[in-house]
Amino acid sequence: PQMPNFCGKDTRRFMHHFGAALAYEGLQASYLGDGSLLLHNYPELKCYRDMVYLTKFLLRTPSDGLQTQVGLGDVLCCLPRMTWNGQGFDVSLCNTNVGLQRLTDVRVATTASVSVHIPAQDGKKVKTEDDVLHVRSLPTFKDALNQPDSELLMSYLTVPYLRIPLVAKFFASNDRIHSLKDQSLQVIMDDVMFQPDRFASDGTEVAPSYIPTRKRQELSTPYGLFINELHRSPKVIVESVSELLKQALDLDTGAPQESTLPIILYCIQLACRVESY
């Protein structure tokens, strides 16, 4: 089936003003498709188109039960191919048809969801903390975590917004920095910290009328969860990342072959990414 990539009023307005600036009347959204004369004469417009599309693609709302086929690294290493079909664009990304409005086929892979790490129990998907508590054997990530710590981490992953400070504090306390030797835990940390999650247009945010909210849309942010957390309550994140960096430096023995080197490099990378925000 065709994945919908329709042009909104803002795209049509942009094309109208762009055409007026070029003295090009009747400029249509279809001219943004690959192979058009417009993109041939103005290749920088194609780069702008791709950046806008990839940004929207990475901010899509996750859909339960969605099969993961395209990873974040794949998305950032390839360019979308767009062809006009008369009503919208057929978009191919990494040889997979993708869309922005109806999410039924492809999404960016994330490990920040507990259901990725724990298989369904009795045919029911693991979603809540109660579900985690009833799981007999939890993942240990190559023995990097014991069962109590794994239960704690999996429980944190069930709360999409609160998990950012909770997971940051988790790895920065009780000498758990050593668990970051496992690359899969590093990926979880990155996904929890930097996955933007649900997108809300700037100025449309509505305060939840009920806590915990029954409407996931009320947890949307215009710039991503991490920036929102830094803006509203940065103390826990800053202190946790600073503590991780301090512990990582204490692990340095001066030997480049030391087994703690991947931990040190990851913590430095994490601190640099946080500082860039």
Summary tags:
3-stranded antiparallel sheet, single chain, 43% helix, mainly alpha, elongated, 277 residues
Runs in which pLDDT lies below 50 for 5 or more consecutive residues are 63-69, 102-107
- The geometry reads as elongated
Q: Tell me the Rg in angstroms.
A: 22 Å
Helix amount, in percent?
40-55%
Strand content: under 5%
For the report, how would you describe the main beta sheet?
A: 3 strands, antiparallel
Question: How many DSSP H or I helices?
Answer: 12
What order do the SSEs take from the amino end to the carboxyl end, as H and E?
A: HHHHEEEHHHHHHHH
Mean model confidence by pLDDT? 82
Count of β-strands: 3
The structure class reads: mainly alpha
Structural description of this entry:
With 277 residues, the chain is mainly alpha-helical. Helices cover 43% and strands 4% of the residues. The chain is built from twelve helices and three strands, in the order ααααβββαααααααα. Strands 1-2-3 form a three-stranded antiparallel β-sheet, with no helix packed on it. A hairpin with a 4-residue loop joins β1 and β2 (89-93). Residues 63-69 and 102-107 have low confidence and may be disordered.
Write a brief caption for the model:
The protein has helices spanning 9-21, 37-41, 43-58, 72-76, 114-117, 129-133, 147-156, 163-172, 183-194, 225-232, 235-250, 261-276; strands at 81-84, 89-93, 96-98.
